[in-house]
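Lecture 7 notes: from sequence to structure.

We start with a single chain of 179 residues. Read the sequence below before looking at the structure.
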Amino acid sequence: RQKHEPLVMRARYLFEMVDPQVASSLLQPALDIDPKDLKTRLAIGLYYLEADQMKEARAQLFRCVQQAPDDPSVWEAWCSCLHKARDMFALERAVGQLPASADASAVCWKFRGLVAEQKGKLDKAVLALQRCVELEPSEPEFHHRLGQLLVRTAQTAPGQQHLTRNQELQNAREALREA
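Now the structure, written as tokens:
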């Protein structure tokens, strides 16, 4: 397995550089050969999502949820699809169905927070976003969302700390890109 990792990394890099529509059409034959290939179906669904082909993305990602209901990466993709489609009703339902394994996913906690915020449960949203930051402290988006919520709930000082941390992380990422 180890000897194939450089090849896998190179293939992944090449696919990341390809237009999402081209990539999904390149992956489709693999799915035709093995319709139970979860990783390929998930990749196709994510490429459709990236290409804003929401109907196709939803179809592929929903099948992933059916095929692997305990896989947090599948739920991350499914919730991302529903959020991008602005289907808050379906997102709320999906968040209510998250498996216990999703407790280790910062992205799933982000969606729990979004749903709680949408329902006006700001304390619950803050707790969910705090969990995001605990799980992935280097993700700027989580600091930004948490900072905004804390400021909204009159917790200005800690909110400002997270907004500052968000900016620091974004600046660091930009410096890396330019290096």
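The radius of gyration is 18 Å. Keep this in mind for problem set 3.
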